[in-house]
Every structure is written in C-alpha cells, then in structure tokens.
Amino acid sequence: MTLGIKRIAKTFVGEVGDFDIADDHDAATIAEVRQALIEHSMLVFHGQSLTNEEHIRFSRKFGPPEIHTVSQYLLPDHPEIIALANRGENGTKPIANGGAYWHADITYKAKPPMGSVLYSLEIPPDGGDTLFCDLYAAYDALPDETKDRIADLKAVHSYHQRFLKSRAIDDGYKKDSFELSPEQLAEIPEVEHPIVRTHPESGRQTLYVNEGFVTQVVGMDEEESEALLLDLFQHSTRDEFVYRHEWQVGDVIFWDNRCTMHCATEYDTSHARRMHRTTIQGDAPY
Ligand code: SIN
C-alpha cells in the first residue's frame, strides 16, 4: 500500500493520508510505516477510532511496550497505556500539564524508548496543543565549534528530579500528590547518555539533551554545565525547528523519541483533556 504522506513542516512531520491504525496490518505495511517514520521523524494520522487493544497492537508491531515506572498513571487493565487525562481515568492520577516542558519520553532509562504513539480522545476548545522539534535540524545548524565541543560529551538524565519539580507545581489537580515507592525509585537510577546521538536506523547525528530530564554535563563544573545546556536547549527549540500540533479528537501522532522532542502547552483546565500514550522500547544511545 502507499501511505500518501504529505510533509507539513519545513524539515520533518509527515501527515499520513488514508490509513486505519485499528486494522491488523501485515509486516510489509508496518515496514512502510517504519520507513516513513525514519524519513519524517513523526507521523500524523487523523480521524482514528481505536480501542485500547487496537492502539496497543499497532504499537507492539514496532517493538515491546515500555511500561512507565509511575504505575499510578497507567490504565489499570492496560498498563501499556499511560493516561494523560486531567480528570484521571478509571482511577489513574490526573495529569493536567504532565509534559509541559521540552523532553523526549523516558530518556532517563539506560535504553530509552524509540517511539511513542499518542491518541487524542478529548481536547479543550482552546489550547492544549503539543509542540515538537526536529533535533536533526537543530544539530545540523550548530556552529562547527559547538559540534566539536560537544562531540564526546555525555549528560546525566534523571526522572526523580523532574518528578519532584512537576509535583511542586500547583495546577489544581495535585491535591492528593504521592511519593515514589522505593521499588519505583530503584527502577530509575540516573543514567548518562551522549549529547550527540547517532540514530541507529538513519545513521544521522542528532542532539540528545532535553530540559525535562537532563541535569548536568558529565565532568563539567556546575556553572559551565548549566550555561552549555541552556545554550543547547534554547538552540534546539528555535522557531525554525518547531512544529505546533493543534489536536482534533481522533488524531494520533507516532513520533521518534531518538530525534525529536515535544512539549505540552497551557489550556483552561476547567475543560477535559484526555490522551492515551503507548511507548515503544528502544536501544542504548551511542
Ligand atoms: C507527552 O509528553 O508525552 C504528552 C504531551 C501532551 O500531552 O501534549
């Protein structure tokens, strides 16, 4: 089959034509979707209507599911799905502005996920868009001296510091906040990843630091590390590398966490916002 893809941002983002994610696609079709993902770094599908099982089945065709450490956010009957729902769903903890900082998903694991599949079920009338940025383009546009400077550097990624920071923000939905258990903390020790990553499928180089989870550059004093990271964060989220997605109910975005970042944006939380995300396991960055 042909996916009928239209590029909708300057350097990345493919909008897929007629494609029903709910179907049980064969290996050849999945290979085509994977190839399109590598080419465009993220794929947008409109007008989808998915059961939880169909969402999980599609995602599994690209690799085993990454189960989020914070089980409080996972659908009780489908732990492969994290509910980004500001009213909660079937007893999950509400998340109003969960990913409102630039990040790629779960980079704080030794083997961070290759991709995520986010399905929009309820959206507020205004706002609640998601921003995405192209980290290949950001890397390519760095001055040569910066490329040389960061070529062999590594950065520390940590979920715990992000959890504490996010929990401290009072967005009206955190009244019964919780602690991570010793078992959960044991799952998320700090890890180090290269600042410049080689994408394992495209072979291209990409910036691999994000303000959500990266705390410092390995072996650098705090002041120098902060200045460098700030510089890289600001550079990678410049307007020319960013695509803004205005959600419609039924949209699905499949993004590659190895070469993009994303950031949720503000909205009026008196309206419901509910999204389901599956996350697909990946490899150790090099
Ligand atoms: C995410 O950070 O995975 C979700 C972003 C969003 O809710 O817009």
Walkthrough of the structure:
This protein is of the alpha+beta class and 286 residues long. It has a single domain (4-280), classed as Double-stranded beta-helix, CATH 3.60.130.10. The protein has 7 helices and 16 strands. The chain has helices at 27-40, 52-60, 135-140, 144-150, 159-168, 182-187, 222-236; strands at residues 6-7, 14-15, 42-45, 74-75, 78-85, 115-122, 130-134, 154-157, 191-194, 196-198, 205-207, 214-217, 242-245, 252-256, 260-264, 274-280. An 8-stranded mixed sheet has the order 1-2-3-14-6-16-5-4, covered by helices on one side. It has a 3-stranded antiparallel sheet with strand order 13-7-15. A 3-stranded antiparallel sheet has the order 9-8-12. A hairpin with a 6-residue loop joins strand 10 and strand 11 (205-207). The longest helix is centred in the last third of the chain and has 15 residues, at 222-236. The radius of gyration is 18 Å and the shape is globular. It starts with 5 loop residues before the first strand and ends in a 6-residue tail after the last strand. Succinic acid binds next to strand 15 and strand 16.
